Amino acid sequence: MSGAPSARLDNALAHTHTGQAYFEHITSLESDRRARAAFHEAVLRAAPDGGALFDFGAGPGIDARFFAERGFTVDAYDVDPAMCEFFAEYCRSFIEQESITLQRGSYADFLSRQVPRAGRRADLIISNFAPLNLVDDLAELFAKFHALTTHNGRVLASVLNPYCWDDMKYRWWWRKLPELWRRGYYVMPGPQAPHVRRGLADFAAQSLPYFNLTRVFRGVPGPSGHLLQGMGVGGARRLAWLHLRRARFMFLLFSKRDS
Questions:
Q1: pLDDT in tens, 109-126
Q2: Domains of the chain in sequence order
Q3: How far is Cα 153 from Cα 149, in angstroms, rounded to an integer?
């Protein structure tokens, strides 16, 4: 992809359905509420009780507030000023208690911002409703995640599922399928910027050398019986679409590699 990735990401995240409008939209849809509930379930299984979270692409603060209410400390970042304004009001009491902090600014500023040596490191970085699909260069983002996490930190990200059966009824999916098999991802246009739908092998490759993709599961509520383990095995990735085919999102769990 050409152009200035950081500027495109800032533009993509700073338009339409932001702040109050986004909050009202995303909380009004049953499918989105179910997807969020599933992500919350996955985070509660992955994070240590009362641990430190970092919420990347935090939006209006729905997830940050949910976890702060359950005893977690949450550092959060979002690029969109309207989102941040809503977040600051929605989570005000927790911000005043210092159980939530909010970082603002451009994506380039986020990447270049130094992590204080005495600063709080995250046990788990969370990213809900697919911010990672808007990032061209995931390698530099995972390098940043590496700096933000504890020595055994992890990342749990909700991303768009390129294997979803609901998309297979559209001609565009079949046109994109050769790209997915050949390159490991395909690019979709958007109202402000393109987004990248990646297969599991591409996510695994992009996270190296900082993290290993260790688990992937379907973005639907319910018991964790659908976890796929050992995703370093190529055969498991090739069969992943059979397990994920009915889910709009897939949740990816990455474990930090030794420095």
A1: 999 998 877 778 999 999
A2: 5-256 (3.40.50.150)
A3: 5
